Amino acid sequence: MINSKPFVIGRNKTDDPIKDVNSNIHQLWDWKNKTSKIVSFLETNYNKNITISTLITSIRDALKIDLTQTVTANVTLTKKDELVLVDATAGAIIVTLPEIKADVVGYHFHISKIDSSTNNVTITAIGTDTIKGDTSMIIQHQYSTAHIVAVDGKWIVS
């Protein structure tokens, strides 16, 4: 007997099944193209001595993933952010971490102050989340970086 339930990759926020199917086809085609770029890279570099860093960079390039952003104003991070370069030349900046939920645990952020001003970069947690037991932490000096990781319902700094 054939299963009559539809195979759904993802649903749009519409109730139109045709739009949902078209969206899913587009998503599959997009991932097929990105996957073929990764496979091509791996085939080209098979048995070559490449570093993990080179491999990750190549995969990010193929998938068009940019995990670095430079900010000059207050920002709330998402789990897609990884390296955040903060330019506080124009004034103090607040970087707000996402709320720790099941899908955020294990995520990490590198937040770095890149300017030489005396303006602070304040990293804050949302709700009951904490950073080293506090609700926020401050980066004061140029090139100072906080590596922050979500662990057990709190943010730790390494």
Overall description:
With 158 residues, this protein is an alpha/beta fold. It folds into two domains: 17-63; 68-157, gp9 (Jelly Rolls, Sandwich). It is 25% helix and 25% strand. It has two helices and nine strands; from the N terminus they run H-H-E-E-E-E-E-E-E-E-E. It has helices at residues 17-44, 52-63; strands at residues 68-71, 75-76, 83-86, 93-96, 108-113, 121-124, 136-139, 145-151, 154-157. A five-stranded mixed sheet has the order 1-3-5-8-9, with no helix packed on it. Strand 8 and strand 9 form a beta hairpin. Helix 1 (17-44) packs antiparallel against helix 2. The longest helix is centred in the N-terminal third of the chain and has 28 residues, at 17-44. The radius of gyration is 21 Å and the shape is globular.
Q: Secondary-structure blueprint of this entry?
A:
Blueprint: H1 17-44, H2 52-63, E1 68-71, E2 75-76, E3 83-86, E4 93-96, E5 108-113, E6 121-124, E7 136-139, E8 145-151, E9 154-157
Parallel strand pairs: 1-3, 2-4, 3-5, 4-6
Antiparallel strand pairs: 5-8, 6-7, 8-9
Helix pairs in contact: 1-2
Compute the separation of the termini in Å.
Answer: 55 Å
Topology-level CATH name of the largest domain: Jelly Rolls
CATH class of the largest domain: Mainly Beta
Inertia-based shape: globular
> How many domains?
2
Helical amount: 25-40%
Which whole number gives the mean pLDDT? 76
CATH architecture of the largest domain: Sandwich
SS elements, strand count: 9
